[in-house]
Design goal:
The complex is a heterodimer of chains A (about 240) and B (about 325). Chain A is α+β, with helices and mostly antiparallel strands and about 240 residues long. Chain A is built from 5 helices and 14 strands. In chain A, strands 5-12-9-10-7-6-13 form a 7-stranded mixed β-barrel. In chain A, strands 1-2-4-3 form a 4-stranded antiparallel β-sheet, covered by helices on one side. In chain A, strands 8-11 form a two-stranded antiparallel sheet. Chain A is elongated, with a radius of gyration of 19 Å. The C terminus of chain B is likely disordered. Chain B is built from 5 helices and 23 strands. Classes of the chains: A alpha+beta (about 240), B alpha+beta (about 325).
Chain lengths: ~240, ~325
C-alpha cells in the first residue's frame, strides 16, 4: 500500500510547520491524496501536532517545535500505512434550489456567460463537485469539479450579504456558505443543510475529498428541508 | 469573597486573548491569539495568572477593581496610571484596590499591551479558546460585565525588565512558495529596506517597498501560519498575523520567526523593517531565550516618573502640566 506521502513534495513553512504539496492545480487525484494524508494524520494523533489543514492540493501541518519536528512527523506518517485500506470516497446528494429569490445572481451569471439560465442550471447539476477545502470563514466549503463551461471571473464588485446556506460560483469553483456575508461570487442557489455545527462531532457535514451531486428542488422543498439540520442531504451508496 | 475587574472604557482595539484556537484552522477558523506572545506571557507570569489576558491597542483602556486584584501588565512604551495616583512604567506587577481605576496608555513606541489578572474568570471557551475574533464573532466581544478574579493582599507596585529585542532585522525562514522567487529576489528581500504602512491590524501588516516579484503571484490556496509573508501581484508584502484567514492564494516567500514577531508587531506605521534569513536552529535558540525571559522576568527598581519625562512622551490625549496623563 502506497505511503500517504507518495507523489508529494514537502515545502518549508517556518520553524513550526511544513506543507505537503501534491500539485499546484485543482485535480480530483490531488484532493484524494490530500484526504488520504489528512486521515492518516488524524488517525495517528501524533504528539505535538497543532494543526492539519487540507486544501485542494496540499496539507499544512503545524506542530510544537519543542515537542516534535518535521523529520519525526514525516517519518511517522510515511510508516503509517501498513495494512490500511484505501479511504472510501463518499458521494452525497445535496438538494439545492436554483430558482427565484434563492438564486439571486444566476441570471446575471448566465448573461455574463452568454448562455440561457437553464444551461447554467444544467451545468451545475451535471458537475461532480468535490470538497477541496474549508476557509474564508468557519465551515465555508470550496468545491472543485464545476463544469468548465461555467467558469467566469469573480464579480467586478462584491455584492451585499448572501443568505446562509448559499451556493456560490466564481473562478471555476463553487462554494457553500454557512453564514450571511458579502461575497464577490455569484449566488446561484440555496441549500438547507447546516454547514457549521461547532458543538458536534464532526463539526461539518462534509470532509475534504467528499463528492457532492446537486439535486435540484423548488423553493418550497428547501424551506421544508431546512427544518432538519441535515437539509435532505443523503449519502449515495455505490 | 471574590474580587472583580471591570473594563470601564472599552474600544475596538481591546480584546481578550489566550494562546489561540488550535485544531480548527481546517474548518476555516482563525487561530487568533496575542499579537506579541512574549509580553502576553510576561503579563500572565507577573499576575500569577494561567491563561487569557486583555490585549490593549493604541486607544488604551481603563479598568476598575472591586475588592483587591493582582495585575500583571506588559507592553513596550505603555504606561499604567492609577487614576488619582502613581504612574508605573511597564512591565509591572501591581494590585488595584477596591474602587480604584487604572489607565493603560501608549507611549512613544509600541502597539500592543497586555493586562492579566490573578484568577481572572473569562467564562466558557469557544472551540477551546477564550480568544476574541471580532471578524467571525468568536469569543467575547462585549466587556460590559465585570470579570471575577482572586481577591488578594495589596502590594507595592513592582517593576520588571522588558525582554526588549524590538530593534534590528526581523528574522525570517523560507515559506512554502520560496521556490517561486528567483535567487535575486530572495537576496533583495534581505538587502532592501521596507516600511510599515498605515494598514496594520490583527489580520495583517502591509509593507511598502520596491516591488518584489514572484514567478507567479496567483497560487491555489494554501494553509497560512502566523508570520507568513505573502506577496500579491503589486509586489508589496503583507505579513499575516493572529486573525488572518486560515488559507489564501498569494505566494509566501517566508515566515517571520516567532522570536521576531513581537519586534515586528510592536512597530508603528512608518517604521523601517529589514529582514534576514535564519535557519530553524537559530530561530529555536532566539525563541527559547524570549520564552525564558517571559517566564522569569528580572525585577527592576521602581523609579519616580518626572513631569518632564511625561511631557516628552507622546501620549494619546495629552499630558497635563502636573504630569498626570489624560487618557482619552
Amino acid at each position: 500500500m502506497a505511503s500517504p506521502l507518495t507523489g508529494s513534495v514537502i515545502r518549508p513553512c517556518g520553524e513550526d510547520a511544513f506543507v505537503v504539496e501534491f500539485g499546484d492545480t485543482i485535480l480530483p487525484e490531488h484532493s484524494a491524496a490530500v484526504a488520504k494524508l489528512t486521515k492518516a494524520f488524524d488517525e495517528a494523533a501524533l504528539p505535538g501536532v497543532r494543526e492539519v489543514v487540507p486544501t485542494f492540493r496540499s496539507v499544512l501541518v503545524q506542530f510544537d517545535p519543542d515537542t516534535t519536528s518535521e523529520t519525526e512527523l514525516v517519518d511517522a506518517i510515511g510508516a503509517e500505512v501498513a495494512g490500511e485500506a484505501e479511504r472510501e470516497t463518499r458521494t452525497f446528494s445535496i438538494p439545492v434550489c436554483l430558482h427565484g429569490e434563492m438564486a439571486e445572481d444566476i441570471d446575471e451569471m448566465a448573461a455574463e456567460l452568454a448562455m440561457p439560465t437553464d444551461d447554467v442550471r444544467a451545468g451545475i447539476v451535471r458537475s461532480r463537485l468535490q470538497v477541496g477545502m474549508f476557509g474564508f470563514a468557519p465551515g465555508f466549503i470550496y468545491l472543485s469539479g464545476l463544469d468548465p463551461i461555467l467558469e467566469l471571473p469573480r464579480r467586478k464588485s462584491p455584492r451585499p450579504p448572501m443568505p446562509k446556506g448559499s451556493m456560490i460560483i466564481a473562478a471555476g469553483m463553487a462554494g457553500l456558505s454557512p453564514a450571511v456575508m458579502p461575497t464577490g461570487w455569484y449566488v446561484v442557489g440555496q441549500t438547507a443543510v447546516e454547514l457549521w455545527r461547532p458543538e458536534q462531532t464532526p463539526k461539518t457535514p462534509f470532509e475534504v475529498g467528499d463528492y457532492l451531486k446537486v439535486c435540484p428542488v423548488d423553493e418550497a422543498t428547501i424551506r421544508e428541508l431546512a427544518k432538519d439540520p441535515t437539509g435532505g442531504v443523503e449519502e449515495l451508496r455505490p | 469573597m471574590s474580587a472583580a475587574l471591570a473594563l470601564t472604557r472599552s474600544n475596538p482595539f481591546v480584546s481578550l486573548q489566550d494562546a489561540g484556537r488550535s485544531g480548527a484552522m481546517r474548518y476555516g477558523v482563525s487561530q487568533s491569539g496575542p499579537m506579541d506572545w512574549v509580553r502576553y506571557r510576561l503579563a500572565l507570569t507577573l499576575a500569577g495568572a494561567e491563561r487569557a489576558a486583555f490585549e490593549i491597542g493604541l486607544a488604551g483602556a481603563r479598568f476598575k477593581a472591586s475588592g483587591t486584584v493582582q495585575l500583571g501588565i506588559a507592553g513596550p512604551g505603555f504606561f499604567a496610571k492609577i487614576v488619582g495616583g502613581d504612574t508605573v512604567p511597564l512591565p509591572a506587577r501591581l494590585t488595584l484596590g477596591d474602587g480604584e481605576e487604572l489607565d493603560i496608555a501608549p507611549g512613544r513606541e509600541g502597539m500592543w499591551a497586555y493586562l492579566a489578572a490573578k484568577g481572572l474568570d473569562t467564562g466558557e471557551p469557544v472551540l477551546g479558546s477564550f480568544a476574541t475574533n471580532a471578524r467571525t464573532g468568536l469569543g467575547r466581544r462585549s466587556f460590559d460585565a465585570p470579570f471575577p478574579c482572586d481577591d488578594v493582599k495589596p502590594l507595592q507596585p513592582q517593576r520588571f525588565t522588558d525582554p526588549g529585542a524590538l530593534d534590528g532585522p526581523i528574522s525570517i525562514l523560507p515559506g512554502p512558495q520560496h521556490h517561486l522567487f528567483v535567487e535575486e529576489e530572495r537576496e533583495r528581500f534581505v538587502s532592501q529596506p521596507f516600511r510599515l504602512t498605515e494598514q496594520l491590524d490583527r489580520m495583517g501588516y502591509k509593507l511598502a517597498c520596491d516591488p518584489i516579484h514572484a514567478i507567479t503571484h496567483d497560487i491555489i490556496s494554501d494553509g497560512i501560519v502566523e508570520g507568513s509573508i505573502q506577496v500579491p501581484g503589486n509586489g508589496q508584502p503583507i505579513i499575516l498575523c493572529a486573525d488572518r484567514q486560515p488559507t489564501g492564494g498569494y505566494p509566501k516567500i517566508g515566515v517571520v520567526a516567532a522570536a521576531s514577531r513581537p519586534a515586528l508587531t510592536q512597530r508603528r506605521p512608518g517604521a523601517e523593517v529589514r529582514f534576514r534569513w535564519v535557519d530553524a536552529e537559530a530561530a529555536a535558540k532566539a525563541r527559547h531565550a524570549l520564552a525564558e525571559a517571559a517566564a522569569n522576568p528580572k525585577p527592576r527598581r521602581l523609579g519616580q516618573i518626572s513631569g518632564e519625562t511625561l511631557m516628552s512622551v507622546k501620549l494619546i490625549g495629552g499630558v497635563w502640566a502636573d504630569g498626570t496623563i489624560a487618557a482619552e
